[in-house]
Amino acid sequence: MQFFIEVLVGGLLAGIMYSLVAIGFVLIYKASGVFNFAQGSMVLFSALTYVGVLELGVPAWEALTIALGVMVILAFIIERTVLRPLVNRSPLTLFLATLGVSFVLEGVAQIVWGAQVHGLDLGISDEPIDLSGVFISKFDVFAASVAAGLVLVLGVLFNRTRLGTALRAVADDPLAALSVGISLPKIWVVVWSVAGFVGLVAGLLWGARLGVQFSLSLIVLKALPVLIIGGFSSIPGTLVGGLIVGASEKLAEVYIGSLVNGGIEVWFSYVVALAFLLVRPNGLFGEPNVERV
Amino acid sequence: MRRAQPKAKSLALGALLAVAFLVVPFIGDDYWFSAILIPLLVLSLVGLGLNLLTGYAGQLSLGSAAFMAAGAFATYNFELRVPGLPLLVSVALGGVVAALIGVAFGLPSLRIKGFYLIVSTLAAQFFIQWALTKFGWFSNDNPSGVISAPPLVILGQDLSSPVGRYLLTLTIVSFLTWVAWNLVRSPTGRSWMAIRDMDTAAAVIGIPIFRSKLLAFAISSFYCGVAGSLWAFAYLGTVEPHGLDLNRSFQVLFIVIIGGIGSIAGSFLGAIFIVLLPIALDHVARAFLVGIVDPSNTENLQKIAMGSLILWFLVKEPEGLVRLIEVGFEKVRQRWSRRLLPVASD
C-alpha cells in the first residue's frame, strides 16, 4: 500500500511538470486558435538560452531577464513572419506553420548553444522528504508549487485585468474584438511572450531534472495527452489533465507494464486521452463547439 | 484561372511514364536507383496515402510511418510463415493488415474532430513502434528487432538488382497512383472532399460519414503499408522499427504540404523535393561553407532550411509545388501562344 501511494504521488507530481508545458500551449490556443506544436521547441530554446547566457558568466537573475527578453523578441518575430501573413488561414495551415517554427527554433538553438547536454542547478536539492512513511522528492514539491502558482497568476491575469479581458475577447470573437479597437497583433505578441515565459519556467524545471538538451523539445509529446484530457482552452484543465496523465502513466507502468515487457509509458497516456475523448470529445473542460451549416 | 489542357497533361504524363519505364532502366546507375529513385518512389507512395486521408478526406494523421512499419512487418511475416506465397501477394496482404490497423485507429475519428484526432494517430505511431520492438514474434525473435528482406523473386525473375528493385517499385507505385487517380474522381472521392470541406454539411446532404471516413483511413493505411513493404524490401533490404518513427511521419506530412495538399501529382513533387533537398544542401555546404560552418551543424542547418521552406510555402503558395508549376506552365503557354498567334490574342 505504501508503495502504491509512493508511485501515485510521484506520478501526480510528474504530471504537474507536464501541465507546465501544456499551459503555454493553452494560452496560445485560447488567444489565437493556433495549435502550437512549437511549444516544446520554445521550452528547449528558452532553457538553452538561459543556460548558455549563464555559462558566459552572467548572474542568474540577469540571465533570466535576458532569456525572457529573447522570448519576447521571438514573439515579435513570429507575429511578423508567421501569424500576420497567415491570418484567416485554416487551423491546419497554422498548425503546420508551427511545425516549421519548431524546426527553425531547434536548429537555431543548437547551432548557437551547441548540441551537448548542459547541466542546470537551480539550487533546490532533489532529496526525498519523509511524509509519514511516504518519500517525496523536494524538487517535485517545488515544481508542483511553481506550477500551481503559475496557474493562479495566469488565472488572475485572464480574469481580473484589462489585458485579460482583451485576451478573452480576442479568443471569443476576433472580428468583434477588432471592431471595438483591440489590436490583434499586439495581443498575439503578448500571448506568445507569456507562452515563452511559461516555456522558460518549464524549461528550467525540466532542464534541472534532465539536463538542458535536445530531448526537452520532445516534452511536447508528453504534454499533448494532458491537453487533450483537460481541453485545449482551459488552464485549470491542464492541471487536472496533468494529474490524471502523470498518475495513470506511472501506475500503469508499474502494475501493467511488468506484464507486457515494460516501456508502455510511451503510449499509455495517449490511450488514456483517447478514452477520455470518447466520452467527452472536447476534453474535460474544453468548450464544446457548435456547428452551423 | 485556366489550367493546363487535359490533352497536353496526359501527353506529358505518358511521356514521363515511357521515360521512367523504358529509358531510365538503361541509363541510370546503381547509385541513382538505390539512393535516389527508389526512396523517391516509395516516399511518393506514402505521401499519396497521406494525401488521400488528409488532403482529400480532411483527417490529419501523424502516424503514416507506423502504418508503413505495420505493412513492412506484416509482409515479412507472411513471407516467413506462409511458404510459397508469391511476393506481390504478401506485399498486398501487408497493405491489408496496415489497412485493418488503420481502421482501428481511425474509429475515434467518428467521434473526435479536428486536432483532437491527432491523439489517435499519435497513439498508433507510439503503440505500433512499441509493439514491434517489444514482442520478438514480429521480427522472428531477432534480438535486434531488425529483419532482413526475403529474396525478391516474381514469376521466377530475380529482381534483386538495383534495376529490378527500381522496376518493381515503379510498377507498383504507378498502378496504385492510377487507382488513386480514379478513386478521387469517384463518388467515394467526392464524399471525402465534401467531408473535408464541412462534415456537418456533408452529413446533412446524406453522405455516409461513418463509412467514408473509415474507408479513407483504410485506403490511406493500405497505401502506407504497401509503401512500408517496398521501403523495407526494395529500398533498404532490411527494416527496423526505429527507422519508421515520428520524424518519418512528419517527413511524409511535409511531402504533402510542400508538394500540394489534395493533389496526386503534388505527392510526387513533394517527395522529389524532400529527397533531393538534403543532397542539394549537402553539396552547397561542401562547396561554399567549408571552414565557415562546423560539419556537425549541417543537420541543424538542414532543419532550419526545412522549417523556413515550410513557412515560405505556407505563406506564399499554400497549394504547394504543384500550383507553382501550373502557374509557371501557364505563363509560358500564354507567352508562346501570343507569339505564335498575334491576331488571335487581340
Structural class estimated from helices and strands of chain A: mainly alpha
**Gap between N and C termini of chain B, in Å?**
19 Å
Shape of chain B: globular
The CATH topology name of chain B reads ABC transporter involved in vitamin B12 uptake, BtuC
What distance separates the N and C termini of chain A? Answer: 54 Å
CATH class term of chain A: Mainly Alpha
Mean pLDDT of chain A: 84
Helical run tally of chain B? 13
Descriptive tags:
heterodimer, A: 293 residues, mainly alpha, ABC transporter involved in vitamin B12 uptake, BtuC, two-stranded antiparallel sheet, B: 346 residues, two-stranded antiparallel ribbon, 72% helix, globular
Please render the helix and strand layout as text.
The complex is a heterodimer of chains A (293) and B (346).
Chain A: H1 2-32, H2 39-55, H3 60-83, H4 91-113, E1 128-131, E2 134-137, H5 138-160, H6 162-172, H7 174-179, H8 184-210, H9 219-230, H10 235-255, H11 265-279
Antiparallel strand pairs in A: 1-2
Helix pairs in contact in A: 1-5, 1-6, 1-8, 1-9, 1-10, 2-3, 2-4, 2-8, 3-8, 5-6, 9-10, 9-11, 10-11
Chain B: H1 6-27, H2 30-56, H3 64-81, H4 87-106, H5 118-134, E1 147-148, E2 153-154, E3 157-158, H6 162-183, H7 187-197, H8 199-204, H9 209-236, E4 238-239, H10 246-259, H11 264-288, H12 298-316, H13 321-340
Antiparallel strand pairs in B: 1-4, 2-3
